[in-house]
Specification:
alpha+beta, Rossmann fold, eight-stranded mixed β-sheet, four-stranded antiparallel β-sheet, 10 helices, 15% helix
Amino acid sequence: MKQASYGSWESPITTDLIIAKTISLVEVAASGKDIYWIESRPSESGRYVIMQRAADGTVTECTPPDFYARTTVHEYGGGAFMVEDGVIYFSNFKDHHLYRQPIGGQPEVLTLADGYYYADLVLDKQRGRIICIREDHTVEGEAVNTIVSIDLNGDERILVEGNNFYSSARLSPDGSKLAYLTWNHPNMPWDGCELWLADINADGTLHDHNLIAGSVTESVFQPEWSPNGVLHFVGETTGWWNLYRYDNDKIEALCPMNAEFGEPQWVFRMSTYGFVSETKIFCRYSKDGIWHPAFLDTSTKEIVNIETSLIEFGDIVLGDGFALFIAGSPTQPYSLVRMDTSTYEIEIIKQSFEVTVDAGYLSIATPITFPTTDGKESHAIYYSPKNKDYVGLEGECPPLMVISHGGPTGSTTTALRLSLQYWTSRGFAVLDVNYGGSTGYGREYRQRLNGNWGIVDVDDCCNGAQHLVEQGLADSKRLAIRGGSAGGYTTLACLTFKNDVFKAGASYYGISELEVFATDTHKFESRYMDSLIGAYPERKDIYFNRSPINFIQNLSCPLIMFQGDEDKVVPPSQSQMMFEAMRDKELPVAYLLFSGEQHGFRKAENIKRSLEAELYFYAKIFGFEPAETIEPVQIENL
C-alpha cells in the first residue's frame, strides 16, 4: 500500500468511467406483465429514452433517436409518459407536444397547438381521451395551469381551472369521479395543498367538486384509487406523512406512525405506494431518513416490513403480479427493480451503472447525527476516504468536502454514486448533510428552515464540518463545501456569512442574489421564498441581508462556479454577478458556463469537464498534485 497525500491518490473511478457507464433512471411504468422506464443518457446529450422489457425478457428502445421523452411543466417535469393497451403516450421535449406511439410503431403527434406543455397523463378509456395537467405559455406573464382532457383527435377541453397549480388528477376505476390536488401561491405543495373530488358528467365535464383533505397549512400527497374504488392518499395531520383512505364520507388513518409515507412533490407522478389487491398495499416509508419497503393490509391495518439490503427507494408502480420501483443502497447503485408480490423475489432489471470497480475503492455511507445550533441535532451521511492502494501521509488529516443538497426541501441519498466515490477514492472525506429543512424526519424538522433559509442550513453545514474536525476525521485547513441550485446558495452563504470555516467552495448554478431570484425565476418557485425567507417585497431587508452578493467583502476564500446558459430556474446572471464581484475584489475565482445546459447538467462532456475542473481547482487551492492530467482551469487572481 502506497503512502501519499490525500487528494493525490490514483483512482480507477475516472470521469470517463462515470460518463460512459452511468445513466439516470427517471420514470417507471407497467402495463400487464411488460415493464417500461425512461432513462437519461449523458452520452447522448442527456436524451430521455423510453425503454420496454417485454414479458419474455426482450428489451427494446421504444422512442426514435430524434425524440426526447421529457416534460418541463413546473420546470422540473415528471409524469412525461404512460402506457395503456399497447400504446405509449408521451411528451416530447423538443416541441412540447404529446405523441401517441403504438408499441413497435412510430410516434404520431396528438396535440396541435404550440405553446402548451403537458404532464401527468391518465387515460380515460370510457370516453376515449387523456386527462392531464396543462401549462399554457401562450398567455402574457405567468403561465396558466389547468387540468384538461384531450381526445384522441387532439381536441382539448379545460376541466378544472382557476388556481395557480394542479397535479395528480386520478380517475376512479368506474370512470365516474376525478380526484386531484391543487394549491396557490405562495404555497409549495409540501407546505399546504388540497385534495378535491369531483363527479364526471356524461359529456365528460365535472360537477360537485368537494374538498376532501388538506389546507394551506396541511399538505396531501399521491391520491390513488384502490381496485374497488376507495380513494386513498397521504396526509400529514399528525406532523408526519401517513396513509389515509376516504370512504363513506369519512377519513380513516391506515397506519399511524412517526414516519414519512410521502415526499416533497417536486415532480409529477411521484409514488410511495400502490395496490397489490383491494386490501393489500405495497409501500415504502422513511424512518430517521432510511426508507423501508413494506406491505400494508388495509383491512387489519397491519404493516409487515420486507427484509432487503435496499434502503433507498424511488417511485412505485404495480404490474400484473409484481411491484416495480427504483432502489439502491450504499453498495448498490440506483436500479430498476422488479419484485414478485407473492414470493418477494427481487430481480434487477437495469442499473444506473454496472459496478465494475473493486470494493476496495468504494467508501460506504455512514449515517451520523451531530450537535448543531440551539442544542439541536442534525443529520448527515459520512464517507471516509477509501482506496485499497493508498493511505494518507503520517499525521495528515484528509480534506473534507461538505455537500449541501438542493431543494432546499429535499434530502440526500445513501445509494452508491460514482460521482461521489470519485472524491473519496482520491482521498477526500465527504459529509453529505441533511440540514434542518430536509425531508424524512417529519414536518417539524422540515419546517426548521421556514423563515431561516441561509441560517439553519448554513449552521448545520458548518457545525457538521467542525464536528468531523473535532473527531480527527478532517483537516480544518482544507474544508470545502459544494452544492447545486439551493445547495449552491447554501454554499455561497456559508463562504460569505461563516467565512472562518470553509477554505474553498464550488457552486453549481447557485443563487447569489435572493431578490433577483424572487423576481426572475419560473412560476413553480416564484413564491417559494415567502416561506423560506419572508414575503417579498415586504421583507426586502431580509432578502438583502441574506444575499451573498451584497456582502462580498466578507468572502475571503476561493470559489469555482458552474452554470448552464439555458437555466430558467437560476438564471446565469446569478453566477455572473458573483464571478464579477469576486474578480473585482481580487479573490481567486473561476467560472465555467456550459452551452445548451439547463438546471442540472445532462451532457457527458459537461459532466466530465465540471468534475475534473473542480478537482483541478481544489488541487491548486489545497496544494496537492492530482494523479491524472487535467485540462487547466483559468482561475482569476491566483
